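Worked example

This section walks through a single chain of length 581. The input is the sequence exactly as stored; nothing has been trimmed or padded.
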Amino acid sequence: MASESKFAHLPRATSSPLECPHQGPSLLHNAHFNKGSAFPTPERQTFNLHGLLPPHVQTLDEQVERAYQQYSSRGDDLAKNTFMASMKAQNEVLYYKLIQTHLKEMFGVIYTPTEAEAIRNYSRLFRKPEGCFLNIRDRGVEGVLRNFETRDEVDYIVVSDGEQILGIGDQGVGAILISSAKLAITTICGGIHPARQLPVVLDCGTDNEELLNDELYLGLKQPRVRGKEYDDFVEEFVRAARKRFPKAYIHFSLYLSEDFGLQNAKRILEKYCTEIPCFNDDIQGTGCVTLAALLTGLHVSKVKLEDVRVICFGSGSAGTGIADQISDAIATETGKSKEDAMKQIWCIDKPGLLLKSHGDRLTTSQAPFAREDREWTDAEGVDLLSVVKKVQPHVLIGTSTKPGAFTQEVITEMAKHVDQPIVFPLSNPTRLHEAQPQDINTWTEGRALIATGSPFPAVEYNGVTKEIAECNNSTAFPGIGLGAVLSRTRLLSKKMIVAASKALAAQAPALKDDTKPLLADVEDVRELSVNVAKAAIQAAVEEGLAQEEGIPGEEDLEEWIRVQMWEPRYRELKKVGREDY
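Given that input, the structure is written out below as tokens.
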């Protein structure tokens, strides 16, 4: 498309030859330019590659077939993950093309859950550094960032502090891999150029005794730094990153473990979201994709957004992030105030229903959702079943990591009051789900609309089979990031995220057949990202946040987006001198 497009001149378009300053062995060792056995004969001559490669010239598809055979021969998922990391360091295009060709199969290997094992074993599997390592004892972030000389502007930064990684807790410096993995997902799913992104780890030490006692551990061997010194470090990074890469969109992956209060993720997001374009996928990404599933469920069950009653069971960063997104959508779409919209949501955590009287025990994220104590008499319990009985919710969402919390009694009580209960047990991994989809379907006599946090097989009741949607935030954050990058939005607004959720919901298979999933599959994510980006860009333009010049109107916007999405294909190389490059 790029060669035929009127937008082929744009800097991110990939129709023109790729200028390359390398030749010989140096070229073969550069993953960005390397084509391996696919270098055509003219380029082998131009770039002095004769004798360095076998003579037969392969196609990219032939390389993918060979690489897939090698991948399949690995004994377990961690070995496959390591193989893919090695390939990424050798040949960027082949790495992404292989994943794109086998996305459904490989997604869980390059990302969650297998990436968690790679992170846990980072110091033992370490071969080659990737990304930016900042540590709190070696300040001068601005000077460090100057080491990352890039010909192209950096569009997308993912930064993690390693304290709460994929359900495995504090992994210290190994968090660089989650930053890299999230960026790989933005490329595969959203077309973010791999040469225009930067993974970052903020090494603040670790409280993981296993790492501290491991002689091979590569990070700072000291207890994790907290408080003002931590905040100052994050501040220094944000300011330096904005100075060095002024157009970059920053994707935070910063969380404090539960012992120290999950409000840290929300606090950091709230501090910077009014200053820079930034995002937190645990809060906003999970909230966005869950809201999309909810909007689909409401459409199928014929419940209006202005009337919906929602219970969120589990009120950490993910749970309150979901509640925030839902209340934002209610306010945005119905004209209600944010405060009134929040009254349609009941949040439950360890003490039970969140109440004003809990005072200082409430995190900053929980406090806005706390109910007035006068709403509940002494005789009324604040446990999940009691709240379900009183509220009679249309929607029940679980982010509690409390397996089996959605009991048969809870689900059947919910089903007494609504025709099609919308039930989302989202806790990960699978063993921590609040209920099994098959049980929910059986207890509701096949009436429930279900989405989960992990993949589950279809469920059946009385001969009717229903497919289960997965609330995978990877269907949301790459498209949101793409829209933010291409529009050069000053900020990522609530309206942009609600627009993204509506775009996701609009692609749901359940809209045409209620036995189909409430969300599109991850295999369709590239097309989803185009629609999500389009919605986010249009919202940014409407709010006056977009800074990019020349954003076209409705008729040409989709083409404008597609032309700027990176595709894993080999481009013709044009030889240039290092001084010209």
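What to look for: The CA atoms of residues 131 and 199 lie 5 Å apart.
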